[in-house]
Amino acid sequence: MPSVGAEELTAFATAAYEAAGTPPEHARIVAAHQVGANLVGHDSHGVVLLPTYVDRIDRGHIVPAARPEILNESPATLAVNGGWGFGPVISEWTMERLIAKAREMRVAAATVREQSHVGRLADYPLMAAKAGFIGMMMADSGQSPKAVAPFGGREARLGTNPLCIAFPSDLPGPIFIDMATSAVAAGKLNVARARKQPIPLGWLLDKNGNPTTDPNAQSEGGVMLPLGGPEGHKGYALSFAVETLAAVLPGLGFGVDPKGRHNDGTFMLAIDPGAFSPADEFKAQVEGFVRYLKQTPPAKGFEEVLYPGEIEYRTSQRRGREGIPIEDSTWGRLTEIGNRFGCAQLLRASG
Description:
Blueprint (H helix, E strand, L loop, with lengths): L2 E2 L1 H14 L4 H16 L10 H9 L10 E6 L2 E9 L1 H19 L1 E9 L7 H8 L3 E7 L22 E5 L7 E5 L6 H9 L9 E2 L5 E2 L10 E2 L7 H17 L16 E7 L7 H16 L15 H13 L1 E2 L2 H14 L10
Helix pairs in contact: 1-2, 4-5
């Protein structure tokens, strides 16, 4: 696979979005989020999504210049309508205001409706963590087509419904949990298809309801499964909670509108740890907890215990030095986009 430096890839993505009609400031935000996902190893939420986003602009499903509208507000709450704008733009804007509210009120919560795909969920709680707060976010895909069966079912009724919690610390790498409540994020199936790789059993059922290792089974009538395998009722229950907070609470409802566009409803929370104990003491305790866990003797087949978020930090350091690998099929689609918008010369492989 070719590799590209983060700066070069960001410049290319920014130029492509601008050429597609996106204001420069919005183009920079979306490009930064996608390349950031590639840097930490979450290629499923990286530039592989650029052609999809451009297609949604073409179809009018993303309004690239849209700005958020406040529907309801109190000193500690915020309800936002994104006007079908870019999810990274709307969600950044909302989290910035939520952090400001948490500085005053110690705890603040927000919902967002009618925005496009938000990308890598961790980006927004990490904004809170960098500001010294505990950040939380949950996301649902609104009434766009569903992909995940409830536990015990074989028909899709749920989204992948991810959630993320991030904690402030002074460690080199951030501490956060970012996970789908399905057995796998949908984008990882796209990566497996692009790389022509089999998937583990437990991710999908085929159209006949049988477990499969074929990543194409979903698009052929199959369905994704909730997190947990034989204990999938736990992932299902978490998914239910996410959809209730991120879709029902903002007023998106549930189910599927066949004509609807992708619509990430979200629930966000920012908490000042200083409301419960001295903030510096909390950070020190979190870091001590990390060291305590990392001192655990590794089990057979493992070299060490990692804290949540550590593997992403290490990947970002490595890819920052060596470049971001792009699978050939994605490279081809990016090249097509570059040729269409006259910016293909910015997409240069470094290895």
